Predict the structure.
Amino acid sequence: MNFKCVVIHYGEIALKGKNRNYFEKKLKDNIKKALHGIPIERLERLRGRFVLHLDNEANEETIKSRLAHVFGITYFSFGRAVPKELETIKATAWSTLKDQEFDSFKIDSRRAQKEFPLSSMELNKQVGAYVQEKCGKRVDLTNPGATCVIEIAGPYALVYGERNPGLRGLPVGVSEQAVSLLSSGIDSPVASYLMLKRGVNLSYVHFHSQPFTNKASQENAEKLIRVLNRYQIRSKVYFLPFIDIQKEIMANAPVELRVLLYRRYMVRLAERVARAEEATALVTGENVGQVASQTLSNIRVVAEVTNLPVLRPLAGFDKEEIVHKAREIGTFEISTEPYEDCCSLFVPPNPETRSHPKALREAEDLLEVDELMEKTFAEAEIKIFDYRKEQTT
Ligand code: ATP
Ligand code: MG
């Protein structure tokens, strides 16, 4: 036994007591899905970590990029699994370090159980002395130029150098199901990302105003979903035609309430999607005070039409923070491509900022929307996006 592997560590999920098994199983499934198309020998759960057995031909860069998109991983390292024999461990530690440039080094051993005759300290000393003899470099425990980690776990000694940071968070799917209202703007993709990071599985709903607008907003939403699917792999999307409802509002409601009325019908329709998907919450990119429609009063009148909790992970963010995150996850460029948003259509110059539920209800009493809602929902275009079918890296 001596094989190439990736040692995958997870953090938060280890804290979750009784749920731990479920979390680990989900993370394992998600890692397997993320590695779709890559020949792997085995993914083994071993004392609070995963050991991914690789064949020698495995492409490290591809695996690295895939694992870097899996929520729940704290860090992962490419290395070797070898027998728990001192001489083999020494030789493997040396081969891990020998191609790196460094002035000082450190051996960092962990021994989960007393399944190895030497203590961690003793192992550090012995392997350290061996490496020092080979390269003549000094040991530095506080600020080493290179580190070699040795983990004694189950049947193996796992030996590796560099750590690749993981995304942390919780494995997607452990936190139930929500429906995310995804425009093609900057905020809602970031809001979706943050919910995926908390382990929520998302379905998406996008409202468009075709044929009044061109297809760009829907196409951008599709591009955004492809980016978000790197984290969830597969998702269901409802594209809902919104123009008939908008026209009814335009023709028969006070102009300053238009945007709020649009939003209220969006939320009602999203709730229907949530029912169809057995989802427990809605997600929006709303952000307190960002635009006129997002005052607290307005957030309240929009949310009052549903009994589902509306999660707004960006509520307290600054715009710069949102933009920074959007760039980091790769949605910013797509969100800033020109498109005609269904809500920027017919937006009045002075929208209401201190709305009252009563005013909205009275305005709605004058609208003939029930049938239009049915029609909109019936005409939903439902698509499944699957990262595995379109992946290039
Ligand atoms: P975003 O950048 O996400 O569009 P925003 O700051 O532009 O957000 P609004 O346009 O006021 O804010 O929209 C508030 C929220 O309503 C959005 O974050 C999104 O969750 C939802 N929403 C708006 N337009 C649409 C749409 N066409 N389809 C689906 N959801 C939408
Ligand atoms: Mg918007």
Summary: The domain at 177-390 is CATH 3.40.50.620 (Rossmann fold). The mean pLDDT is 93. The chain has two domains: 3-165, 177-390.
